[in-house]
Each structure stands twice: as C-alpha cells, then as structure tokens.
Amino acid sequence: MKQADRVFSALDDFRIELPSWGFANTGTRFGKFLQPAAATTIEEKFSDAGQVHALTGVCPTLALHVLWDLPDGVSSAADIDRLSARYGVRAGSINPNVFQDQHYKHGSFGNPDPGVRAAAERHVIDSIGIASVVKSRDISLWFADGSNYPGTANIRQRRGWFIDALRASHARLAPGQRLLMEYKPFEPAFYHTDIADWGMALLLARAAGPQARVLVDTGHHYLSQNIEQIVAWLLAENMLGGFHFNDRRYADDDLTLGSIDPYQVFRIFHEIRSYAHETGGEPDIAYMVDQSHNLKGKIEAMIQTVCIAQELYAKASLVDHAALADAQRQTDLVRAEGLLQDAFATDVRPAIRDWRTSKKLPADPQQAFRESGYLERITADRGSRAAGVSSYA
Ligand code: RM4
Ligand code: MN
Ligand code: MN
After folding, report:
1. Is the pTM of this model over 0.90?
2. CB neighbours of 162 closer than 8 A, spacing ≥ 6?
3. Is the pLDDT of residue 393 over 50?
C-alpha cells in the first residue's frame, strides 16, 4: 500500500473521545486561572466539543463525569439526547466520582467503613444506569483510594473489598457495556494506592468479570516506565480497554499528548498497529483524552491534541511489518530499529491534510477554529456572566 493510502485507512478508523472536564475551568492545588470562555454548564461543554468534532471530524463522543455533569443522576441524563442532537456529539464514557465527597476521606471501595463502601458501590451502580440511559458503552473507574502513612491501612483487606464491590458492580452491567479499570501510582495518596499499576488493574478487572478491561492513562506511570510493553501485554491478554491521552514530564501532569515524548506515543501506537497486523483484527480500544488545561485555551488545546494523536497514529501505520518481522528474525538490529525510526521521521502532515480535504473537513482545523469567530463569541457571552467556577479541581 502507498504511504498516503496507509495514512488514509489508519485515520478512517481512528476516533478520539473528548473529556467534558477539559472545557471547564480547572487548576492546580495552588489555584485556578479562570478563562472567560470556559464552559460552566453541560450544554456549553457539548457545544465546545461539538466545535472540535465539526472541525476534526473524529471526536463524536464526549466523556461525562457524573458528579460534575450529571449531579442529579439518571434524571439529569434525560437532557443528553437533546444536547447530542443539537451539538452533534454523543455521550461517551461515564465516569463515576467516588473521590470528592467528604465521606471518601479514607477511600471508597477500600474504605474500612462498610457504609461508605456501600455508598460508593451504589454510586457506581447508578452510573451504570446513567450509561444505559444515555446509551454509553463504557463506565470508566478511577479510584483515589490509598493511604498516606505506613501501617495505617490493611492492603490485602482493601484488595478484597475492591474485588467484592467490583464484582457487584460488574453484575449490573448490561450486555455490551464495559467496566474500565484505571490505575495510577500515587496522588492523592502518597504512601500506597489501591490500584497502583497495570498488574493490579488487570487482576481486579479479571476478578470483576468478563466485561471489565484495563484503561491506560499515559500519564499514570513512573518516569522511564516502558508503557508500550504494558500495552503489548494487555493486547496479548485481550484486556486493553482504552486510553486516557496526555503527556507528563514529572508526574501526572496532564500535559498535551506528545508534547514531551512523542516517540513514546508513537511506540504505543506501533504496538497496536503491529497487533492488528499480526492478528488480522482491530483491537477494540476506546481512545480518550484526559487533559484539562489551566493555561492553554481549552478548545485550541483539544484540537491540538487530536491533531497530534492523528499524526503519531498515522506515522505508526507506516511501519513496514513484513520487513520488521524479517529483520527481527534475522536479528538485524539496526535495520529493525531503523524501520521504526523511518516511520517516525516521515512527515505525514501533507497526507493528513489530504485526508481531511477528502472528508470535506478543514485542512488545518486549528486555523479554521481561529477564523470561525466561535472563541470570540463564547468569550463575550460567557465572560459577561458572573464568574462561574465549575466543580473540578
Ligand atoms: C485522575 C485520573 C482520572 C481523572 C481524575 C480526576 O488523575 O486521570 O482519569 O478522572 O484524575
Ligand atoms: Mn485519567
Ligand atoms: Mn490523571
């Protein structure tokens, strides 16, 4: 296949979900810098995501956060159909929140208090109900559970509580729905985190039931960890459910995907393309962005992320798998490595522009956004209201 054809067919199948929280005012634990254009209602989040989808054509779904977007549970879900019809994006993964309420101070599924564990389980089960109402497939679980000081938590006992609550939650899934298990090494807990790495997430997903998979947030690894190897193993185990895209320099920084180490993202995509090539089937992976920019313009940052993801995915689709297998067989190390380096060094931007034009999309979505006047319009409309601050961070 010609290079341009490879890029076209790779992009045809590549969809990226946007996070509703990426359009809201967020900050660090030291403070927030408010943006007048930030979305403060779910309608504004749908509207902003609709802009990104209209310009890139590859972001048809919006991840929703139950506490921030659907505070009244199933009854707030009723409006989602109207918003989807109006703004052209559907509800994506449903993200329960079992970390912000005061009673979660010592954990949710791992809390020593059975009443709090039950409340967390109820919230996850309610979230599964919301997913059914808004016709979402994935319920994406991230737990802040952990402890700050040695000896203060019974790690094995908490693991058992997690298994019980995950099984009970999994039992409520409708056919076709999935539970995604996200892991994170530390923060907010600084001594132990109950689901700290992919091994723990994998074991818990297996214990939960057949519809559970692991979610890899690219920022949730220690420095220098080989993320593509984790991806390769999860693919081989048929346990890779999805990604949260972002980049990191120090810890869970939520920087723009590929802004620090684009070759890492390329290598992750290479493992996925290579798995598809070898098995002859596309793995079923939900690609989602998990970034909420404090300094960059939110919509611009999303467009930039989507374009970078497409570029790196397209580059990974250029690797010549037959030649690579041959070089690996012959242990021709320099040729094998060179095949990856050549693909990574290829400028795929002209082919991506052509792909966009062929889909009647703007060749440069960022420029099209700047020329659209949307940002000026929402800055004036939203900025004139009393500064509303959304609940996140
Ligand atoms: C975590 C993780 C989750 C996100 C929370 C707020 O670090 O990335 O996906 O929902 O932050
Ligand atoms: Mn995440
Ligand atoms: Mn994170």
Report:
1. yes
2. 109, 110, 143, 145, 194, 195, 204
3. no
